[in-house]
Amino acid sequence: YQTWGAQLWKERPLACIQSPCSRKCVQVCRACLLPVGSLASQLRYLGFENVPPGAEDVLISNGEKRVEDVEEAGDSSCVPGRVVPCSEPGCSEVFCSEACRTWALTESSHSLLCAGRLSAECLSALQALEQLADETETEHLLLVAHVVAQMILQRRAGVTLDEVKRRFAEQFISSPWVELAPEDGGSSGDDTREVRQTNFDKATPLIAAIFAGEALTEGLLEPELLSSLLGTFELVNMCISIPHPLNASGEKIAELLSGETAAKVAEMQEPLEDSDSDDEEDKAVDSTEGQPEAKQDREASALQAAKSGELFENVIGTALCEALAFTNHSCLPNCRIEFATASQAEATGPGLWVFSVTRRPLVPGDEVLMAYVPSVVGKPLEVRQRKMKKFGFPCTCRSCETDKALEAEEELDRLKLQKAEGEQPLAAGYPKP
After folding, report:
1. Would you say the C-alpha torsion 30, 35, 41, 47 has a positive or negative sign?
2. Phi, psi (rounded to 5 degrees) for 323
3. Which end of the chain has fewer CB atoms at under 10 Å, N or C?
4. Closest Cα to residue 402, out of 414, 410, 392, 390?
5. E strand or H helix at 299, and its extent?
6. Among 253, 236, 235, which Cα is nearest to 244's?
7. Where are any strands of DSSP class E within 348-421?
8. Is residue 284's pLDDT more than 80?
9. What is the pLDDT of residue 373?
């Protein structure tokens, strides 16, 4: 028996990355994806040369530890506002603590993909892959390199090739990535088999070049395996979404920022905004853009967003998680998925942690179910079915099947009423009352 709010499982992802669009907007710990530094350092990361006085004092924290508490306890592992640079010369990655840095340089994909450890040729290939993933908006192409790095680390640790391939690929549902392209080209219209094949053909030699010289890549760089990994990512990967800690200091930030700076920050965050909207008017172009009145409105809106703790978008990424990959979907889920950065109580070590929490009490025999698209919860049947199409199956969860039965019953009642009123004959296929 599990009570409401009970933790069902917790694990580190097999591999995870911050999305390319998110990397442009927020500087995070490479190991656990926690934003680091202060308001001042984040503004400089965004390209602002002049930061307002007082911005250095707005320190980033997960809300659980204060600087004075950490110093009093003698805990140097995670100090709010601290930025720990990678110890390898030439690497620009940063961390929230020495613990995360040590773990990343020894046990994560960063140990192989650190810019300070790669040769010039390998680093150039990695940068080209990052650019390809960004330009094509296909972050999974970059994640493949990180998964291959984790597989190589397992091989270095003495794990057999068969076991490595089983754990990272063969145990998961998959299909060749190109074959998973939507028939209609997706929402953009250009996600076709031809486009995917072109991008895959560009990515595979880059991935091979990244690991050139590695002795244990045999069997890990075959196109069939890489395509299977991409297929797995598309079918079972989890989208990471971590709230930006600076939003907790919203009122202070609203006092420090000018309207112009706040509006520029908001504009930079736009690529991270949730595009999974049902309202077409949300995507409409503002015809008054560029006019003085519109500029004033944007600045006022941005300052209000800062004050209410909504100026900075969540950190976005993608992760391959074992337990999560075997959890089925329901539009009325009984568990939710949460993330813990290294400095949070739920984390039991450095790096990012993923865990499942019950949304209601569970009894023995209950299947643990999650919402693959959290935004479907509470939405009409038509909306839920449309949003689930990208996973390649029509949702037949209990909530959807109940709504389908109710709609069919309502339609039958309507047709019966029409017949009784003499409006039109009963539609074919319905039984006589």
Report:
1. positive
2. -60, -40
3. N
4. 410
5. helix 292-307
6. 253
7. 353-358, 369-370
8. no
9. 81
Instruction: Please give the Cα distance from 85 to 100 (Å, whole number).
Output: 11
Alpha helix stretches (DSSP H) within 96-241: 98-107, 110-113, 120-135, 139-156, 161-165, 193-210, 223-236
Residue with tokens 């929230």: 96
Q: Strands 7-11 and 94-95, how do they pair?
A: unpaired
Which tokens belong to 104?
């990343």
Cα–Cα dist 355/339, whole Å? 6
Query: Phi/psi at 421 (nearest 5 deg)?
Result: -85, -5
CA 333 to chain centre: 19
Q: At residue 389, what are phi and psi to the nearest 5 degrees?
A: -60, -35
In terms of DSSP bridges, do strands 328-329 and 369-370 run parallel, antiparallel, or are they unpaired?
parallel
Tell me which H or E stretch contains 69. helix 67-73
pTM: 0.86
Q: Which two tokens stand for residue 415?
A: 């047709």
CA distance 309 to 19: 22
Tokens 């989890």 locate to 238
Tokens of 75: 């805990």
The answer to whether the CB of 306 falls within 8 A of the CB of 262 is: yes
- Residue % of the chain over a pLDDT of 90: 66
Reported residue count of the chain is 433
287 pLDDT exceeds 50?
Answer: no
408: pLDDT strictly greater than 90: no
The answer to whether the Cα torsion of 407, 411, 413, 417 is positive or negative is: positive
